[in-house]
Amino acid sequence: VADGRQVHVTREERDFMVARVQTDRQA
User: For residues 11 and 8, what is the distance between their CA atoms, to the nearest angstrom?
Assistant: First the structure.
């Protein structure tokens, strides 16, 4: 579901989410 908010995600927020996913995979 692509809504207007997701398109407006900043690079910092994206990097933070990616880092969280990677740490979740390692756990």
Answer: 9
Q: Which amino acid is at 15?
A: D
Q: What is the largest CA-CA distance in the chain?
A: 32
Helices and strands: H and E segment counts in the chain: 2, 0
Residue-wise pLDDT for 5-18, tens only, equals 666 778 999 999 99
Unique residue bearing structure tokens 């407006």: 8
6: its two tokens: 């997701």
Could you tell me the pTM of the whole model?
0.46
